[in-house]
Design a protein that fits this description.
The complex is a heterodimer of chains A (262) and B (316).
Chain A: E1 13-18, H1 27-37, E2 46-47, E3 55-56, E4 60-68, E5 82-89, H2 97-100, E6 107-109, E7 116-118, H3 128-132, E8 139-141, E9 146-148, H4 154-157, H5 170-174, E10 180-184, H6 191-199, E11 215-217, H7 243-253, H8 258-261
Chain B: H1 5-25, H2 34-54, H3 75-100, H4 105-127, H5 138-160, H6 166-197, H7 204-208, E1 215-220, H8 228-234, H9 242-264, H10 269-296
The chains are: A alpha+beta (262), B mainly alpha (316).
């Protein structure tokens, strides 16, 4: 059914992505492809992978942006320019337009935990759901002709055959910087909800009225490069040195009598 | 957006078919005349060919029957349901004309309203998308409905309506001129809005949430090469020739048909028919080009993650 479930769903499982700590290594991108090409649904195919114009279906991609502060044209001209690595996958929106536009009922949002999934056996590959998604979270698998998207690793998070530590989405488990967090954003006392509250987590494109579940944490305030560094070396303070070290200090400073004179 | 030829062919061809069916269903054309019978066959053929071509852009068309199931939420599903339902009164009316030379106005109203609703559903598929601000307006529905109606009207009048006699000829010409003007005007309003609105309220700053730090630019795309998203939504844009193509479109769907129809009012019967048919062909070609531009120049919000305006520059 492509009607949305009654809102809010009791659980709102999703990701919190920390733009401050992401280093843009693409490990989550690769681990996502690796897990999902052999898990839920058809494999994530590549076209012309070793040729001149390679492409393929990926459920998680990292964009890299630079931010130029107001008044600057070139990097570093004004304020502190920043480079922000920006991982992007399905945001499992509460008001998901990709679900309601689906003509076949292939696209659905789970009533119990809010995960948005595609039933690939029903998908006709019309691509309208990808058109309706502002975030570019859905990509057609060209080989199978069906729509692919982030499943929040639904085949991991409830999988009791896995060790408990592995029952999180593959991208979260892999991230070496700890920039990705998984949990229930519908529960205000969950670790992810607290993290969002503490750090001022925000929605992407709130003006699109999709009510995304995934949140992004803003880069922390940054000190300017060189701020706090001493411009000239200051002589070290050795007053109070005594004993052998005091004798060395006096001898090397060329003031051997200083100690005795006092 | 990537202008899929199958979708453009579908919307213009079946649009014209529904327009022609609408004119016939409202009682125009004596059901006894052979020309009216041929007109019914042509209308149904254009609708059917259009609908079949629309399935060409599906990657798993064998499951297309499932698309009738989600009419409660999906405009695409509603369009499918309406297209099938509309066939019933239209086929019945066509059969009545072809086999019995008869017509029923009540059934005609049902068929006409169904045809209009089907075109409306098609337009709403695009008008309901928040991601493409250029499409997300009631004007899109007005453009689709008027383009379909004017196409159908011109086809009926220039190819099949002649048997009605010379008295009504000038009335049909004046009516056609009025519809050409209204259609052009509504398309003009749509285009002006489309050119101004761009990405609407969305920007690279809102897309990334980094606007509070300054101006956001794309430094690196996720992959060096293109992907499904850039092919479908950010690239292959006719921006380079947008203005020129817009002028050609105006010439084809407005300036030439207007002039040709005006001139056809002069007392030269044989040349008049040729001019009127040329006006129809020109309008249909213009509508096809307009529909191509409708897709090719549309900006999708996902382009903001691929550099915004930069993503839309032609690769040359």
């Amino acid at each position: 059914m492509t009607m949305l479930p009654a809102r809010p769903t009791p659980k709102k499982l999703g990701l919190v992505i920390d733009l401050d700590t992401c280093v843009g290594c693409h490990a989550c991108v690769v681990s996502c492809k690796e897990w999902n090409t052999s898990g839920y649904g058809v494999p994530l195919s590549d076209q012309d992978p070793y040729g001149a114009d390679p492409s393929g279906a990926w459920l998680n991609r990292i964009h890299t942006f630079e931010v130029v502060p107001e008044g600057g044209e070139l990097i570093g001209q004004e304020g502190e320019a920043r480079v922000v690595h920006f991982p992007k996958s399905c945001l499992h929106c509460e008001d998901a337009p990709c679900v309601t536009v689906c003509p076949t009922g292939a696209s659905y949002k789970r009533a119990e935990d809010g995960i948005v999934l595609v039933d690939e056996d029903k998908c006709i590959g019309c691509g309208l759901c990808a058109w309706s998604c502002a975030y570019g979270a859905r990509e057609v698998d060209i080989a199978a002709g069906v729509m692919k998207k982030c499943t929040l690793c639904v085949d991991r998070i409830y999988n009791e055959k896995l060790e408990e530590i592995d029952r999180v989405p593959s991208c979260v488990r892999t991230c070496p910087a700890g920039a990705r967090h998984f949990g229930d954003l519908g529960d205000p006392n969950s670790a992810v909800s607290k993290l969002v509250a503490d750090r001022g987590g925000f929605d992407l494109m709130p003006e699109q009225n999709n009510k995304p579940v995934n949140k992004y944490l803003p880069p922390r305030e940054k000190r300017a490069l060189g701020e706090g560094a001493r411009t000239t070396a200051v002589e070290e303070d050795t007053s109070g040195a005594s004993g052998l070290l005091g004798w060395f200090d006096r001898a090397l400073s060329g003031t051997p009598q200083e100690g005795k004179a006092q | 957006m990537h202008p899929a030829l199958s979708v453009i062919a579908f919307t213009t061809l079946s649009g014209a078919g529904y327009g022609l069916a609408f004119v016939l269903a409202l009682g125009h054309g004596n059901p006894v005349f052979t020309s009216t019978k041929i007109a019914w066959v042509l209308a149904l053929a254009m609708i059917a060919v259009g609908l079949m071509s629309s399935t060409l852009h599906l990657r798993n068309p064998q499951r297309a029957w499932r698309a009738f199931s989600q009419w409660r939420s999906s405009w695409l599903s509603r369009e499918g349901v309406m297209a099938v339902l509309t066939f019933a009164p239209l086929t019945l009316l066509a059969a009545m004309s072809i086999f019995f030379g008869a017509f029923d106005l009540r059934l005609g109203y049902v068929g006409g309203i169904s045809a209009a609703l089907t075109v409306f559903c098609t337009a709403m598929i695009y008008a309901s998308l928040r991601t493409v601000p250029q499409w997300h307006t009631a004007w899109t529905a007005a453009v689709y409905l008027l383009a379909a109606l004017t196409s159908g009207m011109l086809i009926y009048f220039t190819l099949f309506g002649r048997e009605a006699g010379t008295d009504s000829n000038s009335i049909w010409v004046l009516l056609s001129l009025a519809f050409l003007v209204v259609t052009w005007l509504v398309k003009f309003i749509w285009k002006r809005r489309a050119m101004r609105i761009g990405y609407g309220k969305s920007s690279m700053e809102s897309a990334t949430g980094l606007g509070y730090l300054g101006e956001v630019r794309l430094l690196e795309r996720p992959h060096a090469m293109g992907n499904y998203l850039t092919d479908e939504m950010a690239f292959r844009i006719a921006r380079k020739h947008e203005v020129k193509l817009g002028w050609i479109e105006t010439l084809l769907s407005f300036a030439f048909p207007m002039t040709a129809l005006f001139v056809s009012l002069m007392p030269e019967p044989s040349a008049a028919a040729a001019l009127q048919i040329a006006a129809t062909v020109s309008f249909l070609a213009g509508t096809f080009l307009d529909r191509w531009l409708f897709f090719a120049t549309a900006k999708h919000a996902v382009g903001l993650y691929y550099g915004g305006e930069e993503a839309l520059q032609p690769r040359d």
